[in-house]
Amino acid sequence: MTSDPLVIPKHMQPENSFQGMIMALQSFWADYGCAILQPYDMEVGAGTFHPATIMRALGPKSWKAAYIQPSRRPSDGRYGENPNRMQHFYQFQVVLKPSPKDIQELYIKSLSVIGIDKANHDIRFVEDDWESPTLGAWGLGWEVWVDGMEVSQFTYFQQVAGYDCSPVTGELTYGVERLAMYVQGVDNVYDLNFNGREGDDKITYGDVFLQNEQEYSRYNFEIANTERLSQHFMDAEAECQAIVDACNADDGYKMALPAYDQCIKASHLFNLLDARGVISVTERQAYIGRVRALAKKCADLWMQTPLGMQVIDGSNKAEDLT
Amino acid sequence: MAELFIEIFSEEIPARMQNTARKDLGRLVSQFLKDAGLKFGALETYATPRRICVKIDDVPCSTPDIKEQRKGPQVGAPEKAIHGFLRGAGVSLEQCEQQEIKGKLFHVAIIEKTGQLTADVIAAAMPEMIRKFPWPKSMRWGAGSLRWVRPMQSIICLFDEKIVPFEIENIPVGNSSQGHLFMNNSRFDVVNFAEYKAKLFALNVILDGAEREKIILSAATKACAEQGLELIADPALIAETAGLVEWPVALLGDFEQSFLDVPKRVIVETIKGHQKCFSVIDPNTGKLSNHFVAISNMLAKDGGKIITHGNEKVIRARLADAKFFWDADKKVKLEARVEKLKDITFHAKLGSQLKRVDSILELTEMLCEFTHADLEKSLLAARLCKADLVTSMVGELPELQGYMGGQYALAEGIDADVAEALAEHYAPQGPTDRVPENLISLTVSLADKFNTLLGFWSIDEKPTGSKDPFALRRAALGIIRIVLERKIRLDIPNDLLAFFIDRLKVYFKDQGIRHDLVDAIFALSGQNDILLAKNRVDALSEFLATEDGVNLLAGIKRAANILRIEEKKDGVSYKAIPKKSAYQLPEEQKLFAAIQGSEVELNKLIKDEDFVGAMALVAKWRTPIDNFFDNVKVNDDNAEIRKNRLHLLSYITTSTARLADFRQIEG
To answer: Domain with B614 in it: what CATH number?
Structure first.
């Protein structure tokens, strides 16, 4: 088993390597039986937007997955000048449905494989309820503190797009940069050792992402063409609606996931517009409402697909559509 | 008689819900016992972040036997009536006796119920109690449908040292629980509460929240004292941290001296609000020290070095943010921020914060006449009072609004009185908060609070029942406290008067002043000046504490009662000045003379607001009133004499009504 830190070479150990930490988490959750997925290939504000979380949380089917997801939050850009705020960062996401009885213990074990041993750290589950107005979703849970620092979000999904989640998905979201900074003992994210090597072979987080932050902060805050973005938003909204209409036509094949891609697009475009400061307080609510309406339609479709179907005869299998 | 002990073990319960939850558990369990007719001894409830418990002593092992006789219809009554009775009583005719009652023969049902085992009562009631538990927010988990605040892990239900089994989803119900999640997570079995508490302690869980609070206070104080420092023992923070840990350990950490340039409260709130840590004083200087105390939930292997280091890192980053905000905010003058208030909504129907400031300005100008505050400075304070809402610091730590305004004002060299007013204009914020002494502060505070009340009144958003989302009651109490404690004369607008009278009664009640005296004063018309009204209430209260006062009150009430009855009977009002010529007896004349003779002086005393003097003057009417009632029959056979005497009674009530409506006073 690779989760024993003794057998991992030094440059792969989570204490020395950012990628080592991600791999340790992947290996831990793979060992538990999760499907280890790759990041969703679209811009999202959080790992929750990945269909592997938000769509799979709906419907009766069991599901276990883990993946790293780049998260883009244009408003959080700081031109690479803030030691821990970025418009692009990673979340490591684990979803377990139904949430197992020992999910807290599993989480605590997973911390130990990335160098946070429960005997010497103060791990706390501090009340923090989660709500996503754009997804019409909410859950109860905690933010997890290690020695006073928030390192994860722990949520039991209760509703998505207005549907009750049953069974309930347990969602663990690790802030990997933060955790890595803590275990590597680094105060500036750009100083993180990315590949675990030393000397000339060392690649830092800054080597990988500093220029990225500098360029995107300028683009997001100063350059992005707001008229075009607004148009793209409307296009995504229209395309989503077109897919929904096609699905709802007689004998229409249910294409929840392509529709949902358009919803994700609209959501990111809204975030970009927001960062450009062109959305007023009242408009903001209206935009959020429009994205939520799309999410709702996608969820409605998902509930009619094989993966989202309601339980038939108490079995946990979806009705065969063919 | 035996002990009942219940533990409901779950994942982390939010700190703010724990105390209500343990009390609810105690209440609901004792309720179902009472409903079953059981009486019991002492009840104790406990909560930690992961469990709520109740222990009840001396619960009988079964519910009492019930033997009851119920009287039915007479023997020979219609069949239908007898059937109805039998159905209602749940007995057959054979189970009835015929009894002779007052010479007639009746069917009497004999109802007998043997007591039930208490364990059965508990087993039957527990599932419903759990399902209906009043959490402010609850959730489902796994594949189940049970709701609890967070996933429930297990239940202990022991009565008389034996498990009381019942079914609820797939939760194990028995006699076992679990220790500290990180220090000693093993499961253990118990037979009773004493064993439970002892075993928990051995597994690093302090069950009693009050005990955890004590440990936090003493451990944190000790950690400071070891370094010659002094803890700021914030009681709210002690209570909150007691809800976050099962095994409190205090750790002293530090941060760079340079952060101490930031205003004190910013540091205290940053450390408390974000990190739930305590601030520390250096007793040599009396100022904040560059230390803090973290309450950890762990007795770590390394003695807490890593934990302290981690907390220091986070606090350093938080303070660095705060210092950045402080330095950045200071670059923009408060005056330049005022215009930005137009972008912030105060209330959808009341407009922006800028509009709010404009109204506060207008009111401040008016109020300066009454508070005698410096007009120019007050207007400056009013204009700047909300400017800190658009600073980054207040954006981050909203509880520092006001205080930050004062700090930024001082930093940019604004007059110290004005700066103090910016800091104090939210005060007083409750019944114990300090009332400002600075005239500018209290003027702007009054203006802000009146503006809030008048604004929400204008859009009909008044408090109802327990709902007061805009804290309007608190605003009114603030005005009352400023006006009374700083002796400010002003008239409450008529629209708000009834609301203020209600708040005044609450305020007076807390001060031990009788609500009926408040009624007696506010029954008089035109009592918009609450300071004056308070003086009247005080004079009345003092007067009623004297023998003269008590007797005079009795006399006035007697007069009022007779009048009320006679006026009702005759359907006329006897409100008139009595005629001298109609007097028959000296007591009538003396009474009239006493009242009439003091009239000029009484009016003057009231006009001069000398209510104590006025009461003393009226006290002299006591003897003539007593003599009148002792010697004069009001309802004389002669109609004219009677009428004149009723006029005399009304003369008493109308004359005394200038001081108070004595009819409202109890006793």
So the answer is: 1.10.730
